[in-house]
């Protein structure tokens, strides 16, 4: 779905300009996304297998929940919305632990240039995986993995979405600090 999104600066703040998501991807325009990493108290991390119908990285394992921030929407509201949409889990703002944002730029074979500031949140998962309902259009499957499994496998482009190694190290650092 093509939606209107805000053009952002390198701190992830809206510049006052907007564009369609397709335009941002066509021209490599910096825009905001949310990445929500859900984890259990013993640091089992929820990951999602992207739907086979996804244009970018179909059938690869990725962050628990992710999505674009709509124009005029705050990162927090986008995070709450995306968690509800993608895995049918209602959470509240107090459950979101914000960690520093992360900028990434990826060039894809289909002429898409993903230039994004990821607003990242950690959320403790307090319910059984079987109680989550993946959104069919977005999510093929859900599973829990250890931080060690993520650390040992995130460089495999046949299994995980190829975020930069720095991105995964950033996530793992804050997940380990957030264990308690």
Describe the structure.
This protein is α+β, with helices and mostly antiparallel strands. It is 22% helix and 36% strand. The protein is built from four helices and nine strands. Strand 1 and strand 2 form a beta hairpin. It is globular, with a radius of gyration of 15 Å.
| N-to-C span | 38 Å
CATH superfamily annotation: Nucleoside Triphosphate Pyrophosphohydrolase
Cα-atom radius of gyration: 15 Å
CATH topology category name: Nucleoside Triphosphate Pyrophosphohydrolase
Mean pLDDT equals: 95
Main β-sheet: number of strands, strand sense, barrel status? Answer: 4 strands, mixed
> Which of globular, elongated, flat, extended, rod-shaped describes the shape?
globular
The helical percent reads: 10-25%
Query: Helix/strand-derived class?
Result: alpha+beta
Total beta strands: 9
Strand content: 35-45%
